[in-house]
Each structure stands twice: as C-alpha cells, then as structure tokens.
Amino acid sequence: MEIFLARHGETDWNKNGRLMGQKDIPLNETGISQAKQLKAKLSDIDFDCCYSSPLARTKETAKIICEGKCPVLCDDNLKERFGGELEGTVVNNWGDYIANTTTEPDAEILKRAKNFLEMLKNTGHRRVLIVSHNGLLKNLRYCILGSSGPIDFNQHNLQNCEVEKYEI
C-alpha cells in the first residue's frame, strides 16, 4: 500500500509560532493557497481514500486536495498531540512542552498512530492520502520506518502542505 503523509496548510497560529495542539484553528489565506498548490502537485495520483484529522485545518486541507477525486474520512486517531495548558502559547523550548504534565504523553500519541495504521492495513486500499499534524505524522513515520529508519524522529518536521510517500 502506498501512503502519502501530508501536513495541513498554514494557520495564523502557525504563522505566529503558537502551539495549536487540539485547538480547532482554521487555515489562513496562505494555508488555503498551499492546499491548492498541493492539490495541483498530487493531481496525477489516484487515491482510493483520504483520511484526515477532524480538526478544521486538516479537514479543510484534505477537502481542497481531494475535491472531486476521492472521499475524505475523519479519524480521531489523526488529531494532533493534546497540548494541555500550553495550547495557544508560544513554546520556545520543545523539551519543556514534552515534559509538561498536561501534555498528551508520547506513549499515547504513538498508540494512536499504531491504531490508525492497523485499521488502515485492513481496508484493502492501494493508495491513501493522510492529512494530519506534524506531531502525529512524526509518529506515523516512526511506525512505518521503525527506529532504524532514515529520519530522526525529533528533528524531522514536515512544513505546511509538505507531503512524503511511504510503502507498507
């Protein structure tokens, strides 16, 4: 199965360096433009289905990309890491964010990524687009590549509307 992992388009909170977590923040004009550009980039690819986080920024990105091509299904497992009391703030030290006790633990976000991939393997799809968030996408990549993969888990970040292809 071919899996395309795409991060949502830009929001005003991305632009201002604010931690969104599971706050439901919409795309800004740049994010809408980025999603349209990604749609053009992926126009020759026939997806069986698109899965998206149910948060507005990902749903809107997925709907723009997949308009007229394939269905968009939302899955709660694809939500971004819950940021607790830090959501809406500017986080300068990522270690402080991860260590914050109100933030969703690493093990929980990894569990959600594993659960999603297990479900996906049983669908029979050949080619799938997944539109989600940077933190969740890191965990999906980790599940696909394992610890011996070529991507450093903590250093590799997808930019808004960047896409990567994997096979499982």
Record the SSE blueprint.
Elements: E1 2-7, H1 12-15, H2 29-41, E2 49-52, H3 56-66, E3 72-74, H4 94-99, H5 106-121, E4 127-132, H6 134-145, E5 163-167
Parallel strand pairs: 1-4, 2-3, 2-4
Antiparallel strand pairs: 1-5
Helix pairs in contact: 2-3, 5-6
Summary, kept brief:
This protein is α/β, with parallel strands linked by helices and 168 residues long. Helix content is 37%, strand content 14%.
Give the percentage of residues in beta strands.
5-15%
CATH architecture descriptor name: 3-Layer(aba) Sandwich
Percent of residues in helices comes to: 25-40%
Q: Name the average pLDDT.
A: 92
Instruction: Tell me the strand order in the biggest sheet.
Output: 3-2-4-1-5
Sequence stretches where pLDDT stays below 50 over 5 or more residues:
none
Structural class: alpha/beta
What integer value in Å does the Rg equal? Answer: 15 Å
Name of the top-level CATH class: Alpha Beta
Major β-sheet profile = 5 strands, mixed
Tell me the span between the first and last alpha carbons. Answer: 5 Å
